[in-house]
Amino acid sequence: GITFEEAEFFMEELRKTGAIDRSVLFMNLANDPAIERIATPRIALTAAEYLAFEKDMHVLVIMTDMTNYCEALREVSAARREVPGRRGYPGYLYTNLSTLYERAGRFVGKNGSVTQSP
């Protein structure tokens, strides 16, 4: 999640350049509930995959703050009383992150693509 001021900055920059007309934004703030911080990247990637592989677009996904995503995983893991791994994060943290980053790329027979920038 990002701060309200950072969200406003991104929106204003996209408006100034006209890129807002070609953008789909999924934003969550740092103070949003943990489940929302976990769900937002997956929802954004699902939309990106639809645009890339069903609509043949080249899509750039920018995930601005994965630290808050990891913190949300830690909160949920602690609430579920799971045995913590390194620094209190769940043992499946790296596997979970890979399920996000491995969604970038191209498919044979499809014209679109998904590019990610963490």
Automatic annotation (TrEMBL):
Keyword set for this entry?
Ion transport, Transport
What species was this sequence derived from? Streptococcus pneumoniae
Q: What is this protein called?
A: V-type ATP synthase subunit B
One GO molecular function term?
ATP binding
- Entries under SUPFAM superfamilies matching the protein: P-loop containing nucleoside triphosphate hydrolases
- What Pfam family is a match, any one? ATP-synt_ab
- Asked whether the keyword Ion transport is assigned, the reply is yes
InterPro entries recorded for this chain? ATPase_F1/V1/A1_a/bsu_nucl-bd (IPR000194), P-loop_NTPase (IPR027417), V-ATPase_su_B/beta (IPR022879)
ATPase F1/V1/A1 complex alpha/beta subunit nucleotide-binding domain residues: 3-116
- Gene3D superfamilies linked: 3.40.50.12240
Q: Name one GO biological process term.
A: monoatomic ion transport
- Where does the source fall among the domains of life? Bacteria
